[in-house]
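# step 3/5: fold
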Amino acid sequence: MRHTRLLPLILLATPFAFGQKKEVIELQRDVALLQDQVRTLQRALDEKTTALTVLMERTLDSINKANTAVAVLESGVREKLQQQERSVAAPVASVGAKVDQMAEEFRFLRESIADLNSRMQSVQTQLTDLKNAMTTIQAPPPPPTGAAASGTPPVGVSADGLYRDAMRDYSTGKFDIALAEFNDYLRWFPNTEFAPNAQFYIGMIHYNQQEWEPALQNFDMVLERFPENSKTLDAMYMKGMALLKSGQRTAAAQEFRSLIAKSPSSPVAEKAKAEMKKLGLSYSTPKKKK
C-alpha cells in the first residue's frame, strides 16, 4: 500500500529529472563550443604575435646593421682625418679649417641617413606621393619636352625618390648632378618636409665649390622661405662662414653673434663661438632668467 502511494510521485519526478539532464547536456555543449572558440582565438592571437615578433626582430636587425655601418664609416673618416693632420705641413689655421670642413661633410652624411630613416615614417611625404600619383593618373601623359617647366614632376618621379637620389649624389661628390636634383625637388615639391633641406644643400654645393655669392643667396633663402626649420641654425652658421670666406668679416661676426644669441647652447653655436675666437672678437650670450 505504501509503495502504491509513492508510485505517482516517482512518475511525476521523472520528467522533471529528464528535463534537468537535458538542460545540463545543452549547457555542457555550449561550454564546449565556447572553449573551442576561445582556443581558436588563442591560436590566431599566437600566430599574429609570432608574426609581429619576427617583424620587430627584423627591424631591430636592420637598425643595428645601419648603426654598425655608420660606426665603421665614422671610424674610417676619423682615421683619415688623423692621418691628414699628421701629414699636412700647412699652418695650423689651414689644417683646422680643412678638418672642420670634412667634419661638417661627415655630419651632413649622418643627417642624410637620419633623413632617410625619418622618411619611412613621414606621413606628409606619403600623402604628397599619393597626390602626385593621383594627378598623374587623372592627367594626360606629359609631353616629352618642357614637362619640368610646368611644375609637375614627370611620370614615376616621387618626392622620396628624388630626394634620396640627390642626397646620394651629394654625399658621393657628384655636385653638378645633385644641384640639378635639388633644384628639381624645390620646383616640384616646394612644400614638403625636406624642402628646407634641399635649399640648404644647394647652398652647401656652392660653398664647397667656393661660389660664395650663390651660397649666401641660398642660405638666406633657407632662413626667409622656411623660417624655424630643422636647418635654420645650420643655415645661419654656413651663411657666416660664406661671409667670412668672401672677406666680409664684420657681417660674418654679426651672423655668428645672431646664431649664438638664438641658441647659445646648441652644438652649432659652439662652432660659431670658436670662429669668433679665431677672429679675436668677443661674443655675449643672453643671461638665464631667474
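# step 4/5: annotate
Confidence is low (pLDDT under 50) at residues 135-149.
# step 5/5: archive (pending)
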